[in-house]
Design brief:
By secondary structure, the protein is of the alpha/beta class. It has a single domain, classed as PAC-like subunit (Rossmann fold). 40% of the residues lie in helices and 22% in strands. It has nine helices and eleven strands. The chain has helices at residues 3-6, 33-44, 109-122, 153-159, 172-182, 204-218, 225-243, 246-261, 276-295, and strands spanning 7-9, 19-25, 48-53, 67-71, 75-79, 83-88, 97-103, 127-136, 146-150, 162-163, 186-195. The strands form two sheets. It has a nine-stranded mixed beta sheet, with helices on both faces. It is globular, with a radius of gyration of 20 Å.
Amino acid sequence: MEPSNAVVRHAEVSLREPVLVAAFRGWNDAGDAASFAALHLNRIWKGEDIASIDPEEFYDFQAVRPQVELVDGLTRRITWPTNELSAAQLSGAPNDALVLIGTEPSMRWKTFADLIVGLAREHGVKLVVTLGALLADVPHSRPVQVTGTAVDTDLVTRLGLQRSRYEGPTGIVGVLQDACGKAGIQSASLWAAVPHYLAVTPNPKAALALVNKAVDLVGASAAVDDLERATSVYETRVSEMVAEDDEVQAYVKLLEERSDERADEEQIDPSKLPSGDALAAELERFLREGNEGQKD
């Protein structure tokens, strides 16, 4: 399939210098926080589906399997991995928005990123904002730390972000930012730190933090009442779970002390964060040492 045929258009729309907000499920989406935030923005802004990317050339369907569901309890329907582009006309805002919500592809990343850049150019996008979430040694009981990075020095200064210093493995978000830079489209990336010891998904607290930061960059408002309520329920539930295990409670207290110590320091730099495997090993070591101490 040629790249030009991979984009399926559903509707035409006229937009005012839109900002493109993009999030991808998978490696870039700890706690489903980034995709949840993008879904929230698309719903609040009443986005209209205008295009999608055919998944055939970009996914290993043994790794990212399509889903079978029943329609009306009788008809079987297959749902494929999706990358849907929606358009939102934002009254009262300086510009409109495009929201891309998808799944990180398995292959042909450069072609995939070029397709998105082509869609951005087609609609006159002036800024691409990608959302991401990473596992970090942060406690659930403290405010979510959101790091905003950009490559362009002027954009860093104008939007109050940081210049990216990350070196290491990247996901489709990093590839897309690189493609935007080569195409002369400004881009920024927002990353929320998600507690690595929690398997609760989606993480509404991290999603709320991303939404609040994203609307600042887009220059538009978005109601967050339902996200705030979900965050309150989330915090209560997690606190109850932690309180039931003395060892985990002690570990969270340690993370809280670390968090408070660096509260006045710079935001989290993704290049200085350990991997998810390293964080899991730290938790296992902490619990193992706690058990050994009790035996003594």
